């Protein structure tokens, strides 16, 4: 199964790198390849961006006079042939040859070779052009971000043009991208490759937006199997008792806010007095139809639930749902073949059960 990215933290720092081409509205909407700016974001990057170089660090290149734009620089390197082909298929070449500035996390041909062949084939399918645009713009930021500034982002959340979020951590001094459990997803192997309209940082693994991973990994685990494998045994038992397993193993797609075992233990007193029908409704309150990534959740004031009596209220500043359940921001955007899971530290008990 393709491993999707999960955020390490949701912070106000995400606004630093918001691109004008960020995806909005329907998660399946196509990115407009003609939309790019980054000027406001570029102004927010520290003054070290003007130097464009970091010396003395392994895998980091000193700045040289830029003669080619990002696309021509990548093509000239000879190790990004698949990326160049996909940019052409996605109609993003003109965008990345534009004024910018941009920062591109560029997967090598070897990085694409790590993907299942079926995924690469799916990305090359003209019918999946919108999906391909999302995957590629997940690697692009609307600002010039040199290695020195990337290092300063350790533990921070950043937002590429695609609109979902990424988390950066340092490992042995090298910038890496990690999932919610801290597992390594990609490492910057060569930084500060300068171009006339931005910077390229070379990465060793292709990054896939969590909501796109659902479409690209139809043979992966469903929501129930994913939860069971991750140790959410109490939730699994309650879903079984409420006869909801078949529902959440169905085509969906669904967004599930999954309380941990400890969350259910802490909520035992509140749940003990509920009838089986009320417990089922409480579980349905943790499920929303469709795929809603964490970035969209925290940009909303409420999320509809399958318990139709009330929507799920969102307090974005507190990363809290229904005024009672904290989102575990280290375990979100967990992609399954029929939806996505965000982990909660608490159980939600809606009014009107």
Summarize the structure.
With about 350 residues, this protein is α+β, with helices and mostly antiparallel strands. About 30% of the residues lie in helices and about 20% in strands.
Mean pLDDT: 78
Poorly predicted parts: 1-65
User: Any idea of the CATH topology of the largest domain?
Assistant: FAS1 domain
Q: How many strands?
A: 15
Q: Architecture of the largest domain in CATH?
A: Roll
Compute the gyration radius: what is it? 21 Å
| Domain module count | 2
Proportion of residues in helical segments: 25-40%
CATH superfamily of the largest domain: FAS1 domain
How are the strands of the largest sheet arranged? 2-1-7-6-5-4-3
Tell me, what is the CATH class of the largest domain?
Mainly Beta
Class per helix and strand makeup: alpha+beta
Strand proportion: 15-25%
How many helices?
16
Ends: how far apart?
Answer: 37 Å
- Spatial shape: elongated
Let me know the largest β-sheet: 7 strands, mixed
Give structural notes.
The chain has helices spanning 39-44, 70-77, 81-89, 93-96, 109-113, 117-124, 129-137, 147-151, 210-216, 223-229, 233-241, 245-248, 261-266, 268-272, 276-284, 294-297, and strands at residues 102-107, 140-141, 157-158, 166-171, 174-178, 184-195, 198-203, 254-259, 287-289, 302-303, 312-315, 320-321, 325-326, 334-336, 339-344. With 353 residues, the protein is an alpha+beta fold.
């Amino acid at each position: 199964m393709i491993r999707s990215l999960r955020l390490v933290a949701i912070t106000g720092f995400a606004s630093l790198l918001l691109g004008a081409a960020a995806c909005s509205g329907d998660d399946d909407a196509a990115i407009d390849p003609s939309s790019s700016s980054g000027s406001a974001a570029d102004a927010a990057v520290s003054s070290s961006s003007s130097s464009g170089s970091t010396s003395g660090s392994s895998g980091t290149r000193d700045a040289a006079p830029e003669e080619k734009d990002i696309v021509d620089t990548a093509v000239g390197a000879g190790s990004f042939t698949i990326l160049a082909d996909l940019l052409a298929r996605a109609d993003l070449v003109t965008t990345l040859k534009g004024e910018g500035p941009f920062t591109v996390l560029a997967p090598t041909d070897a990085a694409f070779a790590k993907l299942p062949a079926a995924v690469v084939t799916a990305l090359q399918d003209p019918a999946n052009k919108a999906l391909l645009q999302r995957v590629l713009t997940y690697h692009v930021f609307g600002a010039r971000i040199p290695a020195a500034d990337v290092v300063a982002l350790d533990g921070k959340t950043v937002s590429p043009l695609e609109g979902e979020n990424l988390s950066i951590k340092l490992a042995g001094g090298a910038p890496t991208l990690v999932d919610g459990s801290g597992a390594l997803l990609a490492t910057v192997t060569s930084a500060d490759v300068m171009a006339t309209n931005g910077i390229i940082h070379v990465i060793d693994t292709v990054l896939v937006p969590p909501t796109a991973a659902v479409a690209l990994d139809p043979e992966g685990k469903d929501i129930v199997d994913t939860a069971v494998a991750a140790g959410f045994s109490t939730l699994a038992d309650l879903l079984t008792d409420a006869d909801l397993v078949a529902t959440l193993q169905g085509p969906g797609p669904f967004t599930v806010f999954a309380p941990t075992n400890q969350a259910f233990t802490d909520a035992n007193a509140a749940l003990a007095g509920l009838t089986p029908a009320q417990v089922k409704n409480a579980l349905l309150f943790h499920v929303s139809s469709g795929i809603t990534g964490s970035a969209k959740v925290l940009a909303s004031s409420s999320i509809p639930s399958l318990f139709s009596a009330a929507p799920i209220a969102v307090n974005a500043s507190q990363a809290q749902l229904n005024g009672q359940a904290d989102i575990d921001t280290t375990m979100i955007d967990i992609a399954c073949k029929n939806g996505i899971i965000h982990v909660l530290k608490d159980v939600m008990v809606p009014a009107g059960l």
